[in-house]
Specification:
By secondary structure, this protein is of the alpha/beta class. The protein has twelve helices and 14 strands. Helix 1 crosses helix 2 and helix 6 runs parallel beside helix 9. The chain is globular and about 70 Å long. Bound molecules: S-adenosyl-L-homocysteine.
């Protein structure tokens, strides 16, 4: 069966033309799908015969809400979606003054193994399709009734470990006949997959690149982030400099503050040294609680921030949202589905 919602408009037009349809039919179907229809029968301007033909060959991905939690603290909403194949993923909706932001997952699970993150504990099951990423935006908007203006690829999964599908998703969600969300309103976060960063640099998209740095020295970083053994932090910094040179776009560095591990002044000094020649922005994240993790939140956030600023680096502290529903950075996990018992847990 063809996953029709993952097709670009051009592909859809060609596909329908091959079925003997006129050129404008592709756009009709594309528009319906990006409105979030659940079946071909809802496409009321299509002849019944065509709808039947499409049903025979294609599926429309439709996630169902397996659980919805609303934070009492700040109104953040966390969705647990069940996908067509029974797998589950999480999406978080945050309401900021500058607009509504969805944090979407890019994989079912994650294989990157960061020691402080809940998303990776049970490993990776599979990549999400472009349609499944689009659906998280589409159906969050439909269910909440809130218009989504910003997207962050910071949920479960490593986007650059699912590069082709993620890029296709960006194309789809950005399309004027679809949700039409501007690239400038989209952030992609990576744990440091160097070839992926170079690939993005060549594409020159207007998205914001976030890099999960968490330590500027190889020894510390390798201990908490296995990806550092494949792409060392020196290579990572070099890739970031190349990215900035090519795109002129400022990179945002995420830095979860871990007590006694990465919060020493010398590490702030080293960050400054490594970012020289590039307008870096360090986004400090107060470490969120993950039961299985041995790490404790840093007590030096203000001091570290001051130290970075003394070197002329912009350093901000990320406001934690949805803490009471485990919707904060690093707290999303597949375990939810096992607790629920309804979703496949391979
Ligand atoms: N795989 C991508 C996308 C996930 S983004 C990446 O690693 O960038 C989620 C962000 O939350 C990452 O910066 C991640 O390192 C961070 N994070 C993970 N666990 C955390 C925790 N316990 N506390 C604070 N931040 C955490």
């Amino acid at each position: 069966m063809i996953d029709i919602k993952s097709m670009t408009l051009e592909e859809m037009t060609r596909f329908l033309r091959d079925l003997g349809e006129p050129a404008f039919r592709g756009k009709q179907v594309f528009t319906w799908l990006h409105k979030g229809v659940r079946s071909f029968d809802e496409m009321s301007n299509l002849a019944k015969g065509l709808r039947e033909k499409l049903k025979e060959q294609c599926t429309i991905t439709v996630p169902t809400v397996a659980r919805k939690q609303v934070s009492k603290l700040d109104g953040t909403v966390k969705y647990l979606w069940e996908l067509n194949d029974g797998n589950c993923i999480e999406t978080v909706l945050m309401q900021y003054h500058h607009g509504n932001t969805v944090c979407i997952s890019s994989q079912v699970g994650c294989r990157m193994g960061c020691a402080f993150c809940a998303s990776t504990i049970a490993g990776k099951v599979r990549d999400l399709t472009p349609s499944e990423m689009l659906d998280q935006v589409l159906f969050t908007q439909l269910d909440s009734g809130l218009e989504i203006s910003n997207i962050v690829l910071m949920g479960i999964g490593e986007p650059l470990d699912n590069r082709e599908n993620v890029l296709r998703f960006l194309q789809l969600v950005n399309h004027p006949d679809g949700l039409n969300i501007g690239m400038r309103h989209i952030s992609l976060s990576t744990c440091g997959v160097v070839p992926g960063i170079d690939y993005l640099a060549d594409l020159g998209l207007q998205i914001t690149l976030s890099v999960s740095l968490h330590a500027p020295d190889s020894e510390t970083r390798s201990k908490i982030m296995p990806v550092n053994r494949a792409y060392d932090v020196e290579e990572l910094f070099a890739a970031c400099h190349r990215y900035f040179k090519k795109t002129g776009r400022r990179i945002s560095f995420e830095y979860a503050m871990i007590d006694g591990v990465n919060d020493n002044d010398w590490q702030a000094d080293l960050i400054a040294k490594k970012l020289k020649g590039m307008p870096g922005h360090v986004n400090m994240i107060p470490l969120n609680d993950v039961v299985e993790s041995p790490f404790k939140p840093s007590r030096r956030i203000a001091a570290f921030q001051k130290r970075l600023e003394s070197h002329g680096i912009t350093a901000t502290v990320r406001r934690s949202l949805g803490g009471d529903i485990d919707a904060s950075c690093g707290q999303l996990r597949r375990k939810e589905m096992e607790e629920k018992g309804g979703c496949a847990s391979t």
